[in-house]
Design a protein that fits this description.
- It is a single chain.
- The protein is α/β, with parallel strands linked by helices.
- It has a single domain, classed as 2-enoyl-CoA Hydratase, Chain A, domain 1 (Alpha-Beta Complex), CATH 3.90.226.10.
- The chain has twelve helices and ten strands.
Amino acid sequence: MMVSPSERMIVETDGAIGWMVFNNPERRNAISQDMWEAIPLILDQFESDPQVRVIVLKGAGDKAFISGADISQFEQLRSSPESVKQYDAIGDRAQTRLQAAKKPTLAMIRGFCIGGGVGVALSCDLRIASEGARFGVPAAKLGLGYRWSGVKKLVDLVGPAYAKEIFYTARQFSAAEALAMGLLNRVLPEAELEAYVRSYCAMIAENAPLTLAAIKGVVAELAKPSPALDSKRCDELVARCFASEDYVEGRRAFMEKRKPAFQGR
């Protein structure tokens, strides 16, 4: 029997599908720290079950896949350099584990897929959304830094120009726009989404697991960064954002529901 490590995560199996459900609907499924921590543990369960051939991630309800990280926790869990490092390590560990999952993973996206939600979706192998889904990465509205590994995942998928547009504007994109960028594999009418995903998973489940695992491994190797990449400089640029007055202003403006006034320092 599958056991969820957090009440904000639902774990179910249905035939060949293992469902991981982000269950924080009152905050549009924003990811809290305990939800990040639960992801690797849930994946362990799915990978140890030979009946599960495909892992599908979705949000509870129809308003959101994941609306981002739970920013209400940032003042407590992500305000000092030490706490930023610890919080980011938990999120990174979850997304790295998801990206390295031994079985095919699919994000089924309804409603909002914002910030950390895009990060989770990018960590899956495939992304299928309903026509009403909305996407965005509002890091620049909060003044926070976005780790190079997360930026690379987006650049690898949509290319440098679209990645810059997503970050520079910090606006929300429609499902049609996301499909045109290459962020999504398919877009379906809302009423057809789940049935399509189920039939899609059934098609995958009929195929040879070792072949799928080999393809996944080869693609992961091909996507590895160049040895010339200066990850230390990338980390320093991100740390500068988190140490800035603008990041304090971004958090406070969000909590006070007002527009931030950034100063570039």
